[in-house]
Amino acid sequence: MAIQQEIQRGDIIRINLNPTTGREQTGETRPCLVLSHTQFNQVRNGIVIVSPITRSVKLAIKTMIPLPEGFKIQGSIIAEQIRTLDLSQRWWKPTGEQLPDTFVDTVVATLNVIIG
User: Residue 53 pLDDT > 90, yes or no?
Assistant: First the structure.
């Protein structure tokens, strides 16, 4: 799908993550949270950094961050499974949902603890 709109940090997009290997999250149309800053997304012309969303909520796993209430998509962000994707080479579509900056900052802070 061609880049037809500005992808913003905090957007939830549905994207085909295949091919995957091992324990990577798979799915033909998995929702993902865009972590990369809007300016990066514009400059890189379709390259985005995302974390996949799973339907599971497991509070004991600190790297699975539950989505805030009130959104159509529910579940958890899997903070450690970030992916850099080229949207010009994958099927994707916007969901029309954008998570608050404070939530995205929480996901990035969790990732910083992991890779610190």
Answer: yes
